[in-house]
Write a structure and sequence with these properties.
By secondary structure, the protein is of the alpha/beta class. The chain has 10 helices and 16 strands. It comes from Stenotrophomonas lactitubi.
C-alpha cells in the first residue's frame, strides 16, 4: 500500500503545512489521502515531533505550545500583532464593566490602551498590568495578591481565595495555547488552577491570541471551547483555523476592526 508519489521528506513538509493551517492533522485521513499506511504517517509525525514541530495526540498531531520566553522579552515580541489585538479587544468592552485581566504580555499591551472614558474596574493578579491600567484616567484598579510567578502574575492559595470571591463581567486570560478542539491551555499547574477559577467567576471570556498560540495545546487545560465567548485574532491568523473556531460557535474577531 504505497501509491504516494511524493518523497517522505516532501510529505512531512506538506503535513507540517497543513498542521499550521488547520491546527490539527488526523493520521487516518492523511493515510487515505497519500495512499499509504497509517504506520508510515505515524513515522512522519514522530519525525516532526522529534524536531519539536508537532505534538503527538491520539489519532494524529497538533501544534506544540510555544516555549515561553521571559516576560521582559515577550513584551517586545510581535508588537504589531499585539497592537492589532489591543485595538479589537477595546472595542468589545462596555462602560462600567468589571474587567478581570490575567498576566501576560498581550494583556499588558491591552491594559496600556484601555479607554479611560469607559470607567472600567480592572482586577488583575499582575503588578505590571495593575500599574499600566492605573495610568488610564477613570479606571479603578484592584490588585490580587500572592506569590509572584515567573509569568508575572500572583498565584497560590491567597490569590485563589481572592478570585473565588470575585464576580467579573469580562475575563481576559493569558493563554499559552488555544486549541481548535479542546480550548485554552496553560503550561504550569499552579497558574492553571488560578486561571480556571478566573474563568468560573466571569460572565464573558475574551481570548486574545497571537498566531503562534493557535492550534496548540499546553499541559493544563483552563477553559473548553464552550467557555470561550470571543476569540480575537491577528490578521496573520490562518483563515482555515479561524473558520474552525467560528464553526465551534465562538465569535471570532479578525483584526484590525
Amino acid at each position: 500500500m504505497n501509491s504516494d508519489p511524493t518523497l517522505p521528506a516532501e510529505r512531512t513538509q506538506l503535513i507540517l503545512q497543513e498542521l499550521r493551517q488547520q491546527g490539527r492533522v488526523v493520521a487516518a485521513e492523511l493515510a487515505r489521502r497519500y495512499g499509504i499506511s497509517e504506520d508510515s504517517i505515524r513515522r512522519d509525525l514522530r519525525e516532526l515531533a522529534a524536531q519539536g514541530l508537532c505534538q503527538r495526540v491520539y489519532g494524529g498531531a497538533v501544534l506544540p505550545a510555544p516555549k515561553a520566553a521571559p516576560l521582559r522579552e515577550r513584551m517586545t515580541q510581535d508588537r504589531t500583532g499585539k497592537d492589532e489585538l489591543t485595538a479589537r479587544v477595546c472595542t468589545l468592552l462596555q462602560p462600567g464593566q468589571v474587567l478581570l485581566i490575567d498576566a501576560g504580555s498581550t494583556n499588558l499591551a491591552i491594559a496600556q490602551q484601555l479607554p479611560g472614558a469607559l470607567g472600567l474596574t480592572v482586577i488583575t493578579n499582575a503588578p505590571q498590568i495593575a500599574t499600566a491600567a492605573a495610568w488610564q484616567d477613570g479606571t479603578t484598579v484592584q490588585l490580587i495578591g500572592g506569590r509572584l510567578a515567573a509569568g508575572g502574575g500572583a498565584v497560590g492559595a491567597e490569590a485563589l481565595a481572592q478570585v473565588q470571591h470575585l464576580r467579573a463581567d469580562v475575563f481576559l486570560p493569558g493563554p499559552c495555547a488555544v486549541d481548535v478542539d479542546t480550548g485554552v491551555w496553560a503550561m504550569d499547574a499552579e497558574e492553571a488552577t488560578l486561571k480556571r477559577a478566573m474563568v468560573a467567576c466571569s460572565s464573558r471570556i475574551i481570548v486574545a491570541a497571537t498566531t503562534e498560540k493557535l492550534g496548540a495545546r499546553g499541559n493544563w487545560q483552563i477553559a473548553g471551547l464552550d467557555d470561550i465567548d470571543d476569540l480575537v485574532l491577528t490578521t496573520s491568523a490562518p483563515p482555515a483555523l479561524a473558520a474552525r473556531f467560528r464553526a465551534a460557535g465562538i465569535a471570532v474577531h479578525p483584526t484590525p476592526p
